[in-house]
# Entry
Amino acid sequence: MSERTPLTKIAPDLYQVHLPLPFALRIVNVYLLRGPHGWSIVDTGIHTAEAEAVWRDAFAALKIGPRDIEQILLTHVHPDHFGMAGWLQGLAAAEGRAVPVLCSPLEQKFARTIWYQVGIQDFAAWLMSHGMPEADAQAAHRGMGDTFTMTLPHPPKLETIHPGESIQMGERCFQMIEAPGHSDGQMLFYHPDEALLLSGDQVLMKITPNIGLWTHTAPNPLERFLASLAELRALEVRLALPGHRGLIHDWQGRIDELSAHHYERLEHTFEAVAEGRATPYDVALRIFESERFSPHEWRFALAEALAHMEYLETHGRLTHDPQTGRYTLA
# Structure
């Protein structure tokens, strides 16, 4: 196994692979589960030559051939989780094995809108409507096009799995839990016997998942995220396997930290608006250390500021003028 391919055995027949990302997060965690009929893959990385090399090294280390891939499951279809699903499926298809790619119905809808129909054609205009300068908005829009190319080839079809049901992955049977906020239909996989959770991007160590309001998301993602955290906190989880950063051993403690972070950010957002009539871009400038943000990071900062402002508006603390996009205290 090469040094650039971290492969970690987490538990019997369960492995984590670190795949490289071409932006600030640097790494996405994906998972392999071995069973009597082949391997289940949970999340796939974004499609680059470097990520292909990591997958090939991991397969070689575990003696996995293309025909050994049984199914590909996606916690959600953001590009760093969805981007190599078609490539992996194609490897198996070339060897005569049909491998399903599975996600929740809401994530299937998202993929159809964004990846299969090349959505957000007016993305730059949307960013500008929330205060982003035109040059920055155009750069962010171009970045979306670059990201799109790193999700090719797309699986011809995404099949659906449903929250509340169970699914067999390797030797383990997992319960499926819908966890909205970071993505509308994100799916987590819970194995109660081991108190083991594949937690996607809902709960992360060291960093907080982006909770953004986008053109394609359902209203009030922050409200839904905080409600989801409260429900997830009741689970018995001894070990959570996230989409980024380190493993989570103190489940309730980390959820409490994330919740506290967002309530604190809500107050910072309110204070930023209190300084004067503000667009989401203005607020993002005030609440994030944005001096070195790339266009990729700026679009996430604006969407997250907007999600916090929408939450405050729904709770009667802010109001906004749809014509100017500016918010004031209610």
User: Anything to note?
Assistant: The longest helix spans residues 251-274. Residues 7-150+157-329 form a domain with the Metallo-beta-lactamase; Chain A fold (CATH 3.60.15.10). The mean pLDDT is 94.
